[in-house]
Amino acid sequence: xxxxxxxxxxxIVDHGSLSRAAxxxxxxxxxxxxxxxxxxxxxxxxxxHRSAQGMLSNDAGKIFYEHAQAILKQVADARSAVVQSAERxxxxxxLGLPHSISGALALPLLTASRARYPEITLQLTEELTGxxxxxxxxxxxxxxxxFDDGQLGQFATTPLVEEELRFICRADAPYALGxxxxxxxxxxxxxLILPGxxxxxxxxxxxxxxxxxxxxxxxxxxxxxxxxxxxxLADLGATILPSAxxxxxLQRGTLRAQAICDPAISRTVVxxxxxxxxxxxxxxxxxxxxxxxxxxxxxxxxxxxxxxxxG
Length: 311
Known about the structure:
Layout: H1 3-15, H2 18-25, H3 29-43, E1 48-51, E2 54-57, H4 59-83, E3 91-98, H5 99-116, E4 120-127, H6 129-138, E5 143-147, E6 155-164, E7 166-170, E8 181-183, H7 184-188, E9 192-194, H8 201-212, E10 219-221, H9 225-233, E11 239-241, H10 247-252, E12 255-261, E13 266-274, H11 281-300, E14 306-308
Parallel strand pairs: 3-4, 3-5, 8-12, 9-10
Antiparallel strand pairs: 1-2, 5-13, 6-13, 6-14, 7-11, 7-12
Helix pairs in contact: 1-2, 1-3, 1-4, 5-11
């Protein structure tokens, strides 16, 4: 198996056809077809099949595509690690962000990266936390912002912030109107709209509820942040979330956020890297930058409900 075969296979999947992949790779289509056939012969399985929509991956092809992407990224990272300097780091760095964090962190981080490290191509990917775990393990992302649930021992972790979860609803909704805070029991007594368990925030809420002897009675599950916000604005219920995903709506005054007490709910946000795959100089630089941007956002009050974790 050769690296070029992996590159060819990934290109065919990405472009959806042999002809378009051949043009992008500047390779004759018969040569591309031959390399694909040799790859499938070596693996002993068919990876792609033709359809009216073009070349599509079968189940084996989808699995192999994920591995091929990870291998090609690690090869590119190894090349970058050799040629880049600590003074002017360059190359590509992929950082994974959960949906509930990107609203606060993504744009400030991109702006800071462009200003401080113009030779680094920072690629941000927004995913469910479970997907980010897998991508970090396989090397498809260099770094990931995750939540410390006690299950991150496989990664090298750096604490970033402690983020408060708040009771959020439409600005004119009757729930606890005029109160600066409400108890957790009062919060769960309202109709709630929450992400599913595959989102990092939901297991944290469930854990605190169990410890407090409380249970959720009425919940609408919505896994899309955009749809969840629409449901809040339609006054279908309230939610328990950090402020980050709804910063724009809070600033415009269409939603309001209230503190939760007795007990409060918070989560620890950490930056994670693989223990097995070395970071490039550029990835180290981005890691330091993430910590600095988080600290600046908290100091400026631009990340409501978040406090920097010292050390």
